[in-house]
Amino acid sequence: MTTALETRTARTPPVFAEPHPQEKSLAALRRQADACERCDLYKYATQTVFGEGPSVARVVLVGEQPGDQEDTAGKPFVGPAGRLLDECLQKAGVDRSLCYVTNAVKHFKFERRGKRRLHAKPNAGEIQRCAWWLGGELALLRPDLIVALGATALYSLMGRSVGLTKERGHILQAANGTPVLVTIHPSYLLRIRDHDDRDSERQRFVNELKSIGQRLNA
């Protein structure tokens, strides 16, 4: 179960570590991000995968980075993890179309295995450089709640001192005062092989997502 809002904040999380880009709309920020060369990931990815959703969204879902299918499509959360997120949000009574969905890192980082491109975890420097864009999105959206999906998103939003395992299911407070719900990335559920464990973890994830509606309807 989700706890009450905790006012504790981490020191200088990446997303708040430097001034945000001074664009006046998400469309303008997206155009600027399309030409991003803040780290070397742009050299290998197909394109920048910017956030997507209504400009008046009260909830922002933050994942780690685009996957192979997102890199090709140019849209966040359209691969297997995205489809699972859709299912879990629906079971939790949350309308994804009312949420803004984005990632902490906007370019796909991967390792080649033959013709396959396998996910590679972004490093701290890549997260810190790309947090500039996430900070710009959040500054324009001014959401009532941010959902950190996994450790990379949590690090970008809250800093290195906040751990996913300890804080999972809790609502913390970002440096700018916005509540942050801490939960897993749906790709975690896809990696669980044991059927019973997978079902249990999936239900726990759904229960955590239910706190989105509880928070907004309070």
UniProtKB/TrEMBL annotation:
<dbReference type="InterPro" id="IPR036895">
    <property type="entry name" value="Uracil-DNA_glycosylase-like_sf"/>
</dbReference>
<dbReference type="Pfam" id="PF03167">
    <property type="entry name" value="UDG"/>
</dbReference>
<keyword id="KW-0234">DNA repair</keyword>
<protein>
    <recommendedName>
        <fullName>Type-4 uracil-DNA glycosylase</fullName>
    </recommendedName>
</protein>
<keyword id="KW-0411">Iron-sulfur</keyword>
<keyword id="KW-0227">DNA damage</keyword>
<dbReference type="InterPro" id="IPR005273">
    <property type="entry name" value="Ura-DNA_glyco_family4"/>
</dbReference>
<comment type="similarity">
    <text>Belongs to the uracil-DNA glycosylase (UDG) superfamily. Type 4 (UDGa) family.</text>
</comment>
<dbReference type="InterPro" id="IPR051536">
    <property type="entry name" value="UDG_Type-4/5"/>
</dbReference>
<keyword id="KW-0004">4Fe-4S</keyword>
<keyword id="KW-0378">Hydrolase</keyword>
<feature type="domain" description="Uracil-DNA glycosylase-like">
    <location>
        <begin position="50"/>
        <end position="210"/>
    </location>
</feature>
<keyword id="KW-0479">Metal-binding</keyword>
<keyword id="KW-0408">Iron</keyword>
<dbReference type="InterPro" id="IPR005122">
    <property type="entry name" value="Uracil-DNA_glycosylase-like"/>
</dbReference>
